[in-house]
Amino acid sequence: MDLLIFLIILPLFTAFALGVINYFFESFVFPIIIGSSLVHLFLTIRVASLAFGSPIGYYLGGWDSSIGIALLMDPLAAVMSILISSLFFLAVIYSIKYIKDYILKYYILLFLLLTGTMGMVMTGDIFNLYVFFEITSIASYSLAAIKKEDGGVEGPFRYLMIGSFSGLFLLLGIIVIYFSLGTLNMAQIALGFGSLDSFIQVSILALMTIGFGTKFALVPLHTWLPDSYPKAPAPFNLLSSGIVVKSFIYALIRIIYTLFGIDLLKEIGFSAILVYWGVLTFIIGHTLAYQQDNIKKLLGYSTIAHIGYITVGFGILSHKGIVGALYHLINHGIMKGALFLTLGIFIYYFNTHKIEDLKSLGYILPMSGVFFVIASLSMVGLPPFNGFISKWLIIEGAIESGYILAAFMIPIGSYISLTYYLKIFRMLYSKPEDGMKAKRVDWRLNTPALILTMCCVLLGILPQFPLHLLEKVPSFLLNSQKYITVFLGGS
Amino acid sequence: MRFAYLIVVILFCQGLYIILTKSNLIKMIMGFSIAESALIMLLVLIGYREGGTVPIIYRDFSTVVDPIPQALALTAIVIGASITAVMLAFTIKIHKKYGTIDLNEIKELRNQ
User: Fold this and answer.
1) B106 touching A (Cβ < 8 Å)
2) Where are the domains of chain A?
3) Does B101 touch chain A (CB under 8 A)?
4) Engineered SS bond to A394: which of A78, A313, B31, B64, CB 3.0-4.6 Å?
C-alpha cells in the first residue's frame, strides 16, 4: 500500500518546497499550505478507512522484512493519524489570521511537526521512531520560541534541555535493544523479547518510560510543559497538547504493549505502576493548575492532568481501559484545542494573559465565551459532553480490573478542575463596564473553534459512532501476536 | 574492550553531571554534547568485531564489523548536531535579551 509513505512525504516535501515557492511565486504560498494540508487530510482518511478493515503494512523500497524499514497502520495508528491530520488542518486555517511574524518559518516548522508525528505514529522500525521523535521535538522547540516581540526564550530553552536529554535516554534504550537482539524491526524485537534476561527487559522498560515520559509530561518529568506554553502562539499550543504529546504517548504504548505483551507487563507489575503514576499525575496536575493565574499555564497543567487520565486508562491493560483511554485521548485533543483556540481569540483582540484580564469578555465576544464554557465543561467531564463518556469508560475499566482507588480519584480530580474553571467563568461573565459593545470575530479564527466545540457536543451526544471504530483497536494491542503477523506477512 | 565500555559510562555520567550542576548555558550545551558522544561511542562499540574488516562484502573476507550501528551512529551525529545548533541559537537569543548566559543572573534579572 504505497499511499502510506505519502502521508509522511507530502508534509516533508511541502515544508522544504515552501522556501522555494516563497522566493519565486510569493502569492502561491498560502494556497499551497492550505491545499497540502487538505490533501493530507483526505489521504489520511482514505488510508485510515482501509486500515480499519485490515491493517496495512508497507516496506520502503520493497526490501524484505529482515532488513527493510517498515511502515504499518493498524486501527490504533489510523485513529491517531486522523486526529493528527484533522487538528493540523484546523490549526493551519486558524494560523492564517493569527500568525503575523516569521510566517514562512512558522509554516515550515509546522509541516515538519506533521511529518514527525505522522512518522512516529506509523513507523514499525525502532530507530526510525527515534529519528521522527527528534524531528517532532526540534520542530516543537523552535515553534515554542517563535514569537518576535517579548519572546520568552527561557521556557523553551528548558524544554529543549530536558527534551534533548530525554532523547538520549531513548537512544540508550534503542542501543540496548539492538545490542541484545540485533534487530531494529519492532515485530522481530517482539518475537525475541521474551527470551531476554529480565534485568535487560526491565532496564529497556525504564529507559523507554523515562525517554517518552519526559516528552508527554508524566509528573516528576513535567516541568518543561507549562513553562513553554505562555509565550507560544495559540495554534501551536493546540498542536502541542493535541498532537505532539499524544503521539509520544502513542509511541510508548505501542512499544510497551508490542514488545512486552500483556502477561509480562502484569508479571513485572508495570500495570499497577502506570495506573498509580497516572493518578499521581492528574492529582498533581489539577492542584498545580488551580494555583495558576496565567491562563495558558493553567491549561498546560490541565494537559498534564489529562495525560494522567490517559495513562490510567492504558495502564489498566484491559479492553475497556484501552477504549476509554483512546477516546479520552481524542476528546482531550478536541476539548483542549477548542480552549486554546478560543483563548487565542481573546489574546488576539484583547491581549489577555492573566485570568483577571478576561473580565467581562463573555459579553464582548459572546460566541467565544460560549465556546470556552462548553469546552471547559467537557474538560471537567459533565454529562452531555464528550469528556464525560471517556472518563466514565476509564472509571468502569478501572473498577473491573480492581483499581478501586484510581476509579475513586478520577471524580475527585474532576472536582478540582471544576473549581479552577469556575474561577475563569466568574471573570468571563462578570458585569461589563458601560460602553462595551459586542465585537465581531474574524471567521478564520472563529470557524476552527466552532468546529472543535461542535465536536465536543457531538462526540458526547452520539458516542456510539466513534466507539464503534475504537472497539477494533484493543485486539491489536492486547494480542501482540496479531500485530506481528500483520508485520511479517505484510511484505 | 571492557575498558572502552567504562569510558562510555564515565562520559555519559560526566555529561549528566555537567547539565545538572553548571549554570552557564554554554557549559550545559557542552555537557549535552559529551553525553551524546558517549552514546555514539557505545553505538560504534557494539558493532565492533575483533579482527573484523570494513563491511564491504567483496572477494575474500572472514569477519566484518556490523554496519548497522555505524549507520545509526551517523544519524545520531546528525541529530545531535542539529539539536546543538538549536540550543546555541536559543543561547544567542537569551544573550540578546538579558546580556548574560548565566542561569543565576538571568533568574535575578527576571525577578527585578
Assistant:
1) yes
2) 3-489
3) no
4) A313
